[in-house]
Amino acid sequence: MASTNAKDMMFNMTGVDDLIRLLTRLKSDPDGFQRDWDNVPKPFVQRDRNTHSPFIPQSELLRSLDECKLCMIALEEVGKHVGKRIRFLRRIVTPFLVENGIKTMPDDVLSLVFEAGHRMTYGWEFGEAVSQTSKRFRQVSLRTPLLWTRISGGYSESQIQAFLSRSGQMDLEISTSLPYGLPNAALDVFFESLQGSSDRWSHLDLFENGADVSMGKLGLCHFPRLKSLSCRCLIDLRLWKAPLLTQILGNYANSPTITGLELQLTSFELSIEDVSLDVDGLASTLHSMPNLRHLSLELDCCEGILYDAIPGGLDARDPHSVHIETLRISIQGSTTRDVVAELYDALSYLSASTVEITLSRLTSDNPSAFFYDTSHAFFPYGSTISVVIVDTGNEDSWDEFYVLTEIVQNCKIVHTIHIDNLDAALVPPYSYSYNWKDYSNLQHLKVAYCTGVTASDLEDLVSNLMTAEAGYSFQSLEIIACRRISEGFFLNLCDEFGSRINLKWK
Hints:
16 strands, alpha/beta, 14-stranded parallel β-sheet
């Protein structure tokens, strides 16, 4: 075992002499070295004698190639050992640097660090952790009101009062989540403890059925600071007064009641879990929100449609006539394409800057059908379009559907496209006849975890867009963990086009 470890620690000297000679040349004449380095002749082709350019024989080219390979071996070996040394020293030095940094950090700066940590986490665990780390941390945390602004249904009466006191007059985030086994009657006690602070509630998360009943018993319906409401249960909002409320996240149960709040909402997020969806009812609700800017809908196992007609019918709206910032639609499980197509019809009046379509664990064997409305028109329409696929379909189920091509052909305003986790080709095979001018507006493309994307896909795309006539605007390509795209291919792409577009590979 000892000999094996010693062998692992030995330095591979292959190519070191070549690397030293290369570095010596670079150090002695950096300008000349760069000039010679960039002057790479076309191999095996003699230049025109009239140009008086030297002919470099094949043997010299091969020798130069071998030298470069040896230098690369040495560089990789050096990089491996230096990297190991850096990691070793970092493990030793980092705790001392952190300790010294904290000791010399003023309390007001440390408080800002605590606030940043609080904003990056959920619940109250972060505040509890820093308050129990050391005497100084506890003193600073107790003087940082933000750490004590999250109150949950699992808190005791004494905890609630302590948090209310330590948080000063800051906005409060209230969650009714009860520990397992506690009866719903505990909600009455919880809201009684908070009754005097309702004018400070800014975020309210109602997990438990009957939460609105407990609040109603105490007359809790006026929330002057409330900005965000999350409803995991059915509640009646008709008596609520919340002038600053702009965001609602809830579970949809056909014909949601939000009377009186529609005009002020800018963000609306619904999780739709009913077997049958009342598309007209949902559309009517959305039509009543003139200030809506962000809409997110999640359909889970919606298999049918309720055709309860809206009295008098819905007001007709032209396609893409109402602008919003973001539209996110997540389609899951056994949700049928008929339901999705009807929903797309109802949402066709929206024109979103950013559209995100997620297909997750669909039982359908034809996932590409979930991009079209009832007239078979392609639905996603926006300047930025994102498609996310989660455990849905395989290469065969996406046969002859090329999502990148479909997007650019059907949406002429799109300039940024993100495609995540697709197990299929982005563009048709090269043998297909298609027009690269369809891609002329494409500026940014990000492809992540796409096992079906090939090097030939990207090579065709980049080469055609970068060698096309003026008017094409392709600016960046980012590839993340695509199995068929090697680092070598990407480096070759960078060598050829890296000076003209931004290329990233992870």
